[in-house]
Design brief:
114 residues, mainly alpha, NADH Oxidase, two-stranded antiparallel sheet
């Protein structure tokens, strides 16, 4: 690949490629814990902490989700399927007086989950 800059961050981004082929090797409990910890430590907009992670390992359910996701076969092939979503319910339960539901908050939640 042609080198465009001497900036390591840009070089890393330019050398990135997505892999959509997975083995059926089980992800270790240690790796799962580390990944969850990293996800929980990610920055959040407006201190809302509204990202929830849904972990799916059931093969039949992954296959149904793969169809709903536009027949993306790799969704059914992964040993671990994690869905990140904006989730304001927890905040509303913990702080019923919260003024939630604004469009800006919705967009912030989507950005954080992404």
């Amino acid at each position: 690949m042609e080198k465009y800059s001497r900036n390591p961050t840009i070089d890393t981004m330019l050398n990135h490629a997505s892999c959509r082929k997975f083995t059926d090797e089980k992800v270790s409990d240690e790796d799962i814990a580390a990944i969850f910890k990293a996800a929980q430590s990610a920055s959040t907009s407006c201190f809302l902490q509204v990202t929830s992670i849904i972990r799916i390992t059931d093969q039949a359910l992954k296959e149904k989700i793969a169809v709903l996701a536009g027949n993306q076969k790799h969704v059914a092939q992964v040993p671990e399927l994690w869905i990140f979503c904006a989730d304001y319910h927890r905040n509303q339960v913990e702080f019923p007086e919260s003024d939630l539901g604004w469009n800006e908050q919705f967009l912030v939640g989507i950005q954080d989950a992404g």
